[in-house]
Design goal:
The protein is built from two helices and two strands, in the order αβαβ. By secondary structure, the protein is of the alpha+beta class. The chain folds into two domains: about 1-30, no CATH class; about 30-65, no CATH class. The chain has a two-stranded parallel sheet. The longest helix is centred in the first third of the chain and has 13 residues, at about 15-25. The radius of gyration is 16 Å and the shape is elongated.
């Protein structure tokens, strides 16, 4: 289990962090830009984009499952 070692408050688990991030997204306080959505079968293409071998669009690379 992941537990933070931050000095700025109580220790939090990964679940607590992910829950907070989900709340921020749901409230519209955290926004990301998705550049491309690829099926899981094309994960190799995502790796090529991350490595700079293939041109990556601006934004996040998302794999759908």
């Amino acid at each position: 289990m992941f537990v933070s070692t931050s000095q700025d408050g109580p220790h939090r688990t990964l679940t607590e962090y992910l829950t907070k991030i989900a709340e921020l997204i749901d409230n519209g306080d955290l926004k990301t830009r998705v550049g491309v959505i690829l099926p899981l079968e094309e994960a190799y293409v995502a790796h090529l984009m991350l490595e700079g071998v293939r041109i990556a669009p601006g934004g996040k690379i998302v794999l759908s499952v």
